[in-house]
Design brief:
Blueprint (H helix, E strand, L loop, with lengths): L1 H24 L2 E2 L3 H20 L4 E5 L4 E5 L23 H20 L7 E3 H8 L9 H17 L3 E4 L11 E4 L3 H4 L2 H15 L1
Antiparallel strand pairs: 1-3, 2-3, 4-6, 5-6
């Protein structure tokens, strides 16, 4: 009986192991049709149970079409060292906060005005125009552009931007980036308000 139970458990793990590994690597989007269909139609509950055993929470947003893992914050200091943090908590710099808030707002505008696609695409020039009022206290135009490019690179590394159609012959200002909708999960309405207030206080 025990051997049969172990065989069943092993078979279940074998079925969702590719999904589990993929989730540990990052966000699964609805566009990844094979993974997405298997996740939402078959393996969501087994994966929830599996990750719960190691202190991770599976978040599935069907409306937005993405799934990811979150490690809940433990507020009880006595238990704070019970599990090591697998996932780093992000502390945004002021420049990163400004860009993320503006990108988050652009996502909302895009959802209202463009039903053809879920994620807007902006050129580096357009991103620069978005942040120029908030990055205005820079010594020179060269310093401004350097800071914009640095911040875009950092936000891209966080997974909130994706480079589109890189071309070595393209003018750098025309480099294009897709705003990833996972940004909505990391900056919800409350967090958006908090960041806006922090930015206003810092720029006052």
């Amino acid at each position: 009986m025990q051997e049969e139970l172990m065989d069943d458990l092993g078979a279940t793990h074998d079925r969702f192991a590719p999904l589990a590994i993929r989730l540990l690597k990052g966000v699964i989007y609805e566009e990844e049709t094979r993974f997405w269909a298997e996740l939402v139609k078959v393996q969501e509950l087994p994966l929830r149970r599996y990750f719960a055993q190691i202190g991770l929470q599976l978040i599935v947003n069907r409306n937005e079409g993405f799934a990811f893992l979150r490690q809940p914050v433990i507020s009880n200091e006595a238990n704070a060292t019970a599990l090591p943090r697998l996932m780093m908590r992000r502390t945004l710099s002021l420049d990163q906060s400004i860009l993320c808030v503006l990108l988050r707002e652009r996502l909302e505008e895009h959802a209202i005005h463009d039903s053809a696609s879920r994620e807007p695409i902006l050129s580096l020039r357009e991103i620069s125009e978005l942040v120029v009022l908030f990055f205005k206290e820079r010594n020179t135009q060269q310093k401004f552009l350097k800071d914009v490019k640095k911040t875009v690179k950092e936000v891209k590394e966080m997974g909130f931007l994706e480079t589109i159609g890189e071309n070595t012959n393209m003018n750098e200002d025309e480099s294009r980036y897709r705003i990833k909708r996972i940004l909505k999960a990391f900056i919800d309405a409350d967090e958006l308000l908090n960041l806006q207030q922090t930015i206003t206080a810092n720029l006052a």
